[in-house]
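lol so apparently i was supposed to do this last week
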Amino acid sequence: MSLVPAKCTQCGANLIVDNTKDAAVCEHCGTAFIIEKAINNFTLTGNQSIIINSAVINVQSTAPSQDSAANTPSAEKLLLRAEEFEQSGDFSRALEYYNKVLDLNPSDSTAKDAVDRINNRVIAEITLTPFGSSKSTLTLTRSELIHVTKKGRFVYPTKAITSVNRQYALLSVTLSSQTKPLEFPVGKPVPAKVMETALIKVINER
Ligand SMILES: [Zn+2]
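anyway here it is w/ zinc ion bound
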């Protein structure tokens, strides 16, 4: 967990967020937001020194570097970049770079393990407390939406999700393989919003 400053993308309130998570709810206005966007929002609008710092970094990155002689980056360097992205919480770019490593070296076990680790990382997890029914848990990873109920563990691949809708505390998820959407009565609107935001992010990133 790493706490960093951010700015609510809806109301503009200054927030402190955990940059290893994907989505959160603003304590000021109750709007669910993408953490990466809120951090960018703070960087762009809230702090001049960060803008100056990133400008300096940009200038340096365009200068000739030691590896400019080699046009193709080595697997080792790509792996290093991937690990940096993963550590900073930028999982979609980390995945992109781990896959570049695997393009060069398909048996690289470090990159393979990392791809599995990122795909199985819990992005959001909520407890469903529908009125008059028993509790269950809904967990989202990059690869799967998992619903654990008294009756069992139901796993839906995120690749099959075609749309996500929410009406107050009822979350509906449409899968390409089914005509009727899956309905998750969350019971409360805030966890429903958190899961809706996280699901939309996963769909947009694939
Ligand atoms: Zn807000």
